[in-house]
Amino acid sequence: MIREVFQLYIDRWDFFLKLIMQHLKIAGLSILIASILGLILGVLISEYKKTSSIVLGITNFVYTIPSISLLGFLIPFSGIGNTTAIIALTIYALLPMVRNTYTGIENIDSSIIESAKGMGSTPFEILYKVKLPLATTVILSGLRNMVVMTIALAGIASFIGAGGLGIAIYRGITTNNTIMTIAGSLLIALLALIVDFIIGSIEKIIKRRWKLV
What we know:
Blueprint (H helix, E strand, L loop, with lengths): L1 H10 L1 H35 L4 H12 L3 H12 L3 H25 L3 H9 L4 H31 L12 H9 L3 H35 L1
Helix pairs in contact: 1-9, 2-5, 2-7, 3-5, 4-5, 5-7, 6-7, 7-9, 8-9
């Protein structure tokens, strides 16, 4: 069966290459938007702690909604296709970014913050010169989990008319073509592993540098 899968890759390389690019586009946009929004929300709830329970509660609740259900809920508002898939994936990706940003900042030793205040640093300077750098490894850990999850979840986008490697899986299921289904699934897993390795390597480099400082 593995031989048949690789033969399919060779015979239909242009088809799979197109799907890979579509998959990366959908997942990449979702990851970018979620990273920015998640970082901002995480910083805001760490600065205004009264809002943390509300924001984290909402993101936790949304995270429990099955992906197919969320896609179905969004279709009447944004239609079928990539837009709905990106919105849904972004919503799911927010939780790990918000939670890890908040946790990373909250776990910073309060004496470090007090020292920075004593040296006359403004709240903004404390945020971008002290809090965010010290929380970087925790934030990257959340980003790593979020990226892998988003790439994997993007496989269901084809069920609402979006592109990506989910098309190969969908075609395989609807035509009872097991080889096509496996081929699409393996490529999604491979993409997730490659990106996870890259982010993990960056995380290790940052940790080494912190140890040397």
